[in-house]
Amino acid sequence: MVRSLWTAATGMIAQQNNVDTIANNLANVNTTGYKTEVAEFKSLLYQDIQAKTTSGNGETKPVGAQVGLGVRNSSVTSRFTQGNFYDSTNDLAFAVSGDGFFGIRGQDGNTYYTRNGDFHLATYGQGLALSTSDGNLVLDTNGKAIELGSNILSSKLTISGDGELCYPDETNNPKSLGITIGLWQFNNPSGLEKIGDSSYSVTAASGPAMNENTTQGLTKSDLRQGYLEGSNVQVVDEMVNMIVAQRAYELNSKAIQATDEMMGQANQLRR
User: Fold this and answer.
1) In the predicted model, is pLDDT for residue 87 greater than 70?
2) Could you tell me if 226 and 154 are in contact, meaning their C-beta atoms sit under 8 angstroms apart?
3) Whole-angstrom Cα distance, residue 194 to residue 60?
4) Which of 88, 172, 228, 229 has the highest CB neighbour number within 10 Å of its CB?
5) Alpha helices of the chain — where are they, by DSSP H?
6) In Å, how far from its chain's centre is CA 150?
7) What pLDDT is stored for residue 271 in this prediction?
8) How far apart are CA 27 and CA 197, in angstroms?
9) What is the pTM of this model?
10) Of the candidates 48, 50, 37, 39, which has an alpha carbon nearest to the alpha carbon of residue 11?
């Protein structure tokens, strides 16, 4: 009887975490480059009530009796499906079509990765550099910060499909600057560690970052200037998932209530 009390409690805790995950998805429905997250569960240990070889009469039986002890969250996994593109008024907005991630250099000097291509020009050294809205520098295919001249106008910068930056020459024809925006892929992007700001860091589970420019066998991603990749959150799906999670939470609370009533009736048997 007490077993059911604690089992139902684990279900309520797990479904609360599920609702928290769904709420985070809905909160980030308009976050550029956000990838929807899914809470996954696994059952806890089981207790043997009867072994497979015993019965009330001592006869052999093929199936035993086990009672589960509840559930817990096993992981919160990101789904890296392609988000929809939408127009941006920013001349330095880039959307990734494919599996690639932009490389950025954080304030701590470490390299992080993101799908948010809403970039800007920031003062860096004696000139300008391509950076995120938080001031993190965008990296090229060599893993170096993309530095530009101080007289560069963002409205005149163009980009090829493979990420090469171009700027008009004296005849107003686009000329390559010899700089290509770097893109990296991972064997298991779901293993990346989420650090906020739509950015990720490499872990042992994700595998090392693979440079699309130098790693053989990768399907290279395309860049689209003037567009941003929206989140891949499907609001209708998330609302349905929330209803299911709420119903599961209510069912577990009913199980606790039923257990409490049964314990109360047992306490009153002596009267």
Assistant:
1) yes
2) no
3) 52
4) 229
5) 2-27, 235-267
6) 36
7) 62
8) 13
9) 0.83
10) 39
Enter the tokens of residue 104: 């950025």
Tokens 């998805």 sit at which residue? 25
Structure tokens at 236: 């209708």
DSSP per position, the chain: -HHHHHHHHHHHHHHHHHHHHHHHHHHTTTSTT---EEEEEEE--EEEEE-TT--TTS---S--EEEE--EEEEEEEE--PPPPEEE-S-TTBEEEESS-EEEEE-TTS-EEEES--B-EEEEETTEEEEE-TTSPEEBBTTS-B-EE-TT--GGG-EE-TT-EEEEE-TTS-EEEEEEEB-EEE-S-GGGSEEEETTEEE--TTT---EETTT-TT----EEEETEEE-----HHHHHHHHHHHHHHHHHHHHHHHHHHHHHHHHHTTT-
Q: What is the pLDDT of residues 5-56, one digit of tens each?
A: 889 999 999 999 999 999 999 999 999 999 999 999 999 888 877 767 666 6
Question: What one-character DSSP code corresponds to residue 94?
Answer: E
Counting every residue, how long is the chain?
271
Residue with tokens 């001349």: 91
Say which residue the tokens 């049964």 belong to: 262
Q: Which two tokens stand for residue 265?
A: 């009736």
What gap in Å lies between CA 82 and CA 90, rounded to an integer? Answer: 21
